[in-house]
Amino acid sequence: MNGLAPRLLCVRTLIRTLRANGYSNLALQGALKQSALTSQEKRLCTILFQGTIERLLTLDACIAAHVKRSPEKLDPAVRCVLRCGIYELLYLHTPESAAVNLWTEVIKGLKMKSASGMVNAVLRSFLRSEKSIPLPDDPVDALSVQYSVPAPLIRQLIAEYGQPQILPFLEDCCGEPPVYIRRNPLCGSEEEFLALLEAFSPSVVPQIPYAYRLSRSGSLTETEAFAKGMFHVQDLASQLCCMALDAQPDEIVLDVCAAPGGKTFTTAQYMQGSGRVYAYDLHEKRVRLIAQGAKRLQLSNVCAEVGDAMHPSADRPMADRVLCDVPCSGFGVMRRKPEVRYKSAEALSELPKIQLAILEQSAKAVKPGGVLVYSTCTVSRAENDAVVSAFLADHPEFEAELSWQPAPWNADIAALMTTLFPQMLGSDGFFLAKLRRAE
To answer: Which of 63, 72, 220, 242 is the most exposed place for a label (fewest CB within 10 A)?
Structure first.
């Protein structure tokens, strides 16, 4: 049946990913690479797979309204097929009867012909309900179903920032995120850059040097501009972090948790290819990717090495500036990594201790008068403000200062500790604090 192959691949990959609690982007990339799907079929598979993971709580609420048992008690394959089918009916423009028939065939393709009647019946029952999403009476539980973000996390964020700040953040967590790139000012002219990427309709982000937003999607890595090292993909928040670090030519800079390398590359460009940026990561494979990226961008001042931020080597150099972008819960990038929203509080409880330990070790490498930037891609105060405050309480030789001089163009981010939300500038959720060591 036409259209069956991408849906079968989608649901099989979804079942494996949820069972292993793995990274959805890596699972999907691997599955697509090994498949014989056409480019159009891969696009459909990607949309269905990513969208279903993003909307798990919404989809399970819909399933629960049309089955006699709780969704958790359904066979995992049946549950995943129903999730994908309801997602397609809710958010895509496939003719409804065709979608129902296709997902009924998918369950048969999974060697579960006996469940095909149930799948068909549930999807048709959902259509008879006019595709309504059942919302609980409790306001936070209703937001949880509406935006597919766990209620405990929503309650935490509202308590920390207030509902007016969090509602637009939740809205931004769903749907295709924007793509930002940074032009490499050391490689080619702006005219050539714009001409080679004309198909992507790049538009200038006026507040951030060399930042562009792409208005059209496509395979950036296959462009001539990419091959020539004229840009790298980097969200605005990450570019702002490099602005705060403010590395200067001929300095020594450490990026202690550098992979995948975007901040390393931008920092090296700020230094005009001079000085030295030491980019560390725990895993040799990721270090090689950083080195390859630096080579493509023609950044000879990048030195990528294996290194443990919690247990740095004794020969690590002292630095004028140190970037400490620590592992975190990732709640600021839910629109790019939808599975992070479902992490349990227990699984994240040790993160602040790890983050503080990395910050403590990173501070040892800062020269007198030097700069230490702490950053995360989360909006959890326990991992952000609290970690920095605990560090400053024990280290009077460091003092927080405004991240940008002069003060930023946006009053919301002109603070000693800056939390970025998507509604401010269009960036991911992000936190950073700039600390300076006394002379």
So the answer is: 72
Reported as a pLDDT band with limits 50, 70 and 90, residue 307 is very high
Residues paired with 394 in a beta bridge: none
Q: Is the peptide bond before 202 cis (omega within 30 degrees of 0)?
A: no
Cα–Cα distance, 288 to 302 (Å, whole number): 12
For the entire predicted model, the pTM comes to: 0.94
Q: Is residue 50 part of a domain?
A: yes
Q: Which two tokens stand for residue 307?
A: 């290194």
Q: pLDDT, tens digit, for every residue of 362-377?
A: 999 999 999 999 999 9
Whose structure tokens read 């980019």?
A: 279
Peptide bond into 185 cis (omega under 30): no
> Of the residues 62, 324, 328, 377, which is catalytic?
377
Residues 149 and 208 in one domain: no
Domain containing residue 163: 139-172
CATH (domain of 398) = 3.40.50.150
Our answer to whether residue 377 is catalytic in this structure is yes
**DSSP conformational letter for 397:** T
Residues 165 and 301 in one domain: no
* SS3 label, residue 277: strand
Each residue's pLDDT tens digit, 14-57: 999 998 887 888 889 899 999 999 989 999 999 999 999 999 99
Residue 431 lies in a domain: yes
d(CA 372, CA 358) in angstroms, rounded, equals 12
Q: Average pLDDT, stretch 219-223?
A: 91
Sign of CA dihedral 265, 266, 267, 270: positive
Q: Which residues, including other chains, have CB under 8 Å from residue 23's CB and lie 6 or more apart?
A: 17, 337, 339
Instruction: Please answer whether residues 158 and 140 qualify as being in contact, where contact means their C-beta atoms are separated by less than 8 angstroms.
Output: yes
- Please check whether residues 12 and 81 belong to one and the same domain: yes
* DSSP classification of residue 313: -
Residue by residue, DSSP assigns 98-128 as HHHHHHHHHHHHTT-GGGHHHHHHHHHHHHH
**Do 18 and 84 reside in the same domain of the chain?**
yes
CA angle 130, 135, 138 (to 5 degrees): 165
- Identify the three-state secondary structure at position 165: helix
The answer as to whether 134 is a domain residue is no
Average pLDDT over residues 79-85: 98
Name the residue with tokens 């040892």: 364
